[in-house]
Amino acid sequence: MKTSYHPLSKTLHWAMALAIFGLLALGFVMSDMPLSPEKLQYFSWHKWAGVSVFFLVWIRLIWRVITPPPAYPNSMSRPLQMLAHGGHFLLYALMLVIPLSGWLMSSAKGVQTVWFGVWPLPDLLSRDKELGKLLEWIHGSLNWVLIALIVGHVGAALKHHFIDRDDILTRMLPHKNSPGNDHA
């Protein structure tokens, strides 16, 4: 029986977690900066990383279909399992919708997204200043929802580890590789 996530699943999970934390931090820093070349550079980096997360989440979703996660422990009630599924669904949805809202916002504001400064991505909307402001608000609001879900996700993992004393947390840690793990 599979008791741990596949190493690629773990790598994608932690790489995206680091990227998202970095994106959130950069977003907070750059939003409070006065207009300057440095702020414009931060916006470029933020957009590059956001587009990368958008593409990585698709890879992660495909991988999740190919390599499903281990089953929840028998001690976990059905309502808690459903809550966990719902939380994961919302996390994945936000990892897709937030970068997309940023891309739409950039398009509406008339600022093309150029991935890594090399590959221009098509504008998804025509220039519309008012729509750009609305999309900026949506993008920011969705990030606050993401922060709340991340806090819940981390809190649930810690609860499982310290209170329930099950393997929910440890099976996603990079070092977990005990006998009986099926990494298929």
Task: For the structure shown, list the relevant keywords.
184 residues; 2 strands; elongated; disordered C terminus
Folded structure, characterized:
Helix content is 66%, strand content 2%. The chain has 4 helices and 2 strands. Residues 178-184 have low confidence and may be disordered. It has 184 residues and is mainly alpha-helical. The longest helix has 36 residues, at 129-164. Helix 1 (7-31) runs antiparallel to helix 2, helix 2 runs antiparallel to helix 3 and helix 3 runs antiparallel to helix 4 (129-164). A hairpin with a 3-residue loop joins strand 1 (114-115) and strand 2 (119-120). The chain has a two-stranded antiparallel sheet with strand order 1-2. The chain has helices spanning 7-31, 37-66, 78-108, 129-164, and strands at 114-115, 119-120.
